[in-house]
Amino acid sequence: QVQLVESGGGLVQPGGSLRLSCAASGSIFSINAMGWYRQVPEKQRELVAAISKDGSTNYADSVKGRFTISRDNAKNTVYLQMNSLKPEDTAVYYCNTVLKLGSGWLPVPRDYWGQGTQVTVSS
What we know:
Layout: E1 4-7, E2 10-12, E3 18-24, H1 26-29, E4 33-39, E5 46-51, E6 57-59, E7 67-72, E8 77-82, E9 91-101, E10 104-106, E11 117-121
Parallel strand pairs: 2-11
Antiparallel strand pairs: 1-3, 3-8, 4-5, 4-9, 5-6, 7-8, 9-10, 9-11
């Protein structure tokens, strides 16, 4: 059974930091690149950060230099360290799979989504 459990969100002031965690079932974590997606109401979910099984990473331009994705393969967990947060980072954040093809990264999530974790950046 696929499980994705996100945590770590909250309310933070602009310029602040948060660290998100996602515990994934071993069945998908061990064979896939993983990524963090975010969604705001009435907009499509977007992929903001991804990490391959061997640790190579990719970021959306909007978060490059501020967010860092990492993974602990022993714990089947992926993290997102978010620094210098901006109001436009406000969203519900989800983790899911990503497809890495050569140097390309494609948002190819499984049909199952966790509950997500709300991040609100506001003064």
